[in-house]
């Protein structure tokens, strides 16, 4: 009887052990199935979100999106604020407009340029010399030139020199070669008009010219400009030029 009782106890223990193993196995299986289910749901949600019309529109923007302000990237090129000159020009602050010709462009003034006040128009046009986009490049360059050609330009331009020179200097130190070239031409045009009156301000501009002289492609135009500055500025300009650019050779 004792032996039968021991056998039954051992059998009962084996059954319990098997049941615990089976239960543990069932728990692991159930847990594994739950993880797989969650993963499948997450993948399904992710797939549905990437394939939504809104996401597809972001990946492949439609042409009409450009007209929708909500789709414009706030950090994109479209949102960059226009320059001061561009803003003034777009609001009609420059009293002329560009006329496209078959051979060359020209400016059409709203009224004769000689009737226009130089302050602040001449300074605004000088600021536009730093523009790099059409039509601002042409309007500023040609407008500055034509305004200095009017009768009485000397009397109107001389009082503006203290404010005009820093603006021209900004064009002469610009990294863009075309901006520098426009600034150089504008300086020569101003020298032709105001003559020796420019001498007091010349030293502020010559450092920029001296640095650009190291570039072979600018050596000839800068030398020509210096000669014209000397021609219209007289002996006083020669002394200033030589003090900043000792290698300059006088034409006189």
UniProtKB/TrEMBL annotation:
InterPro entries: ARM-like, ARM-type_fold, Parkin_co-regulated_protein. Residues 1-76 are annotated as: Disordered. Residues 1-11 have a biased composition (Basic and acidic residues). SUPFAM superfamilies: ARM repeat (SSF48371). This is PARK2 co-regulated-like protein.
């Amino acid at each position: 009887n004792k032996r039968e009782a021991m056998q039954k106890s051992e059998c009962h223990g084996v059954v319990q052990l098997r049941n615990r193993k089976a239960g543990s196995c069932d728990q692991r299986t159930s847990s594994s199935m739950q993880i797989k289910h969650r993963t499948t749901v997450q993948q399904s949600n992710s797939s549905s979100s990437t394939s939504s019309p809104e996401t597809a529109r972001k990946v492949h923007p439609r042409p009409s999106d450009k007209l929708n302000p909500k789709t414009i990237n706030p950090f994109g090129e479209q949102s960059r604020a226009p320059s001061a000159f561009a803003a003034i020009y777009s609001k009609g602050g420059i009293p002329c407009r560009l006329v496209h010709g078959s051979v060359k462009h020209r400016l059409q003034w709203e009224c004769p340029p000689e009737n226009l006040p130089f302050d602040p128009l001449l300074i605004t046009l000088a600021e536009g010399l730093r523009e790099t986009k059409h039509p601002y490049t042409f309007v500023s360059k040609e407008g500055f030139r034509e305004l200095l050609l009017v009768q009485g330009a000397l009397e109107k331009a001389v009082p503006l020199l203290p404010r005009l020179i820093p603006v021209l200097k900004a064009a002469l130190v610009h990294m863009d070669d075309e901006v520098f070239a426009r600034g150089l031409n504008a300086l020569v045009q101003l020298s032709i008009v105001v003559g020796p009156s420019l001498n007091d301000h010349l030293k502020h501009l010559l450092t920029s010219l001296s640095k650009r002289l190291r570039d072979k492609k600018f050596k000839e135009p800068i030398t020509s400009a210096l000669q014209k500055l000397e021609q219209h500025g007289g002996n006083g300009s020669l002394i200033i030029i030589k003090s900043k650019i000792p290698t300059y050779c006088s034409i006189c």
